[in-house]
Write a structure and sequence with these properties.
Layout: H1 2-37, H2 43-53, H3 57-66, H4 70-82, H5 88-109, H6 114-159, H7 164-174, H8 179-191, H9 196-206, H10 210-225, H11 229-278, H12 280-284, H13 294-317
Length: 321
Amino acid sequence: MSLMVFFLIGGGVAVFLLVLGIIVSVRSDRDIVDERLGQYVDASVVEEEIKQQAATPLTNWINRRVEGSNIGDRLSKNLARADLKLKPGEFIATMIIAAFGVGFILWFSSGQNILMGIIGALGGLYLPFMYLKNQQGKRLLKFNDQLPDMLNLMVNGLRAGFSVMQAMEAVSREMPPPICDEFRRVVQEMQLGVTMEKSLDNLLRRIPSDDLDLVITAINVQREVGGNLAEIMDTISYTIRERVRIKGEIRVLTAQVMYSGRFLAMLPLFVIGILYLLNRQYMDEFFKPENVPCGYIALALGALLIVIGYIVMNKLGDIEV
């Protein structure tokens, strides 16, 4: 009997070691594959995949609903342009949470006024879009400012005998973000078998810059018909540098107009908030039953005039170069 127990224990240990060996070998093979792919895939991409796997069931459900739709495609494009590591479902979930949060705060602080709750919900729904557009503008502006230095680095590399891909790889190593991140992605795509034309088109889709479009067009034309790419890019670099300088001067001259528009647009909201805190009865006149619908019409007309004034002030300071 003891001998039978000994054989059972020995067989169990052997099976355990066999299973353990298979698991270790499989994991070691995956580690080798991951190490090889890690040469081409950025660590941020791996972190993004881990975050996506840890997504909540709500965001997964929303992702399945918007995947492949026009809304999902537009959101994915906008999130990529802003370099936000979010999926469309996660961004929509953020909008819903912001709408409920701001709406509840205004509803509770206004004495459970349903109209203020609706206004707060609409404002909270728009807050993530404001942040998204702000991040896109900052990233695009920073990219355009770095573009002349990138072109000078590529020109020097081409004159030293580098190929276009080697020059882009030098840019991905030497330049600061965001331009190094974008060109690192272009180089990785080409190393994985994507054509240069397609990789540059993907870059332009992520960075909708007119200056970058000019550079990509020059590279594609040179690949088709030939020519001195270094000289062409040197001329483009000078042109872009002058445009960046002129745009900077225009931003300085129009900063007063832009900030005046923002201040004048926010001033009525601050006045309404202060009056509501200091004299709530005065503000409640808009919502009394005997003043309906005149009170709501006055508030809507005031909001419309504020929006129109803000748009006009922005148009005055928006000068194309």
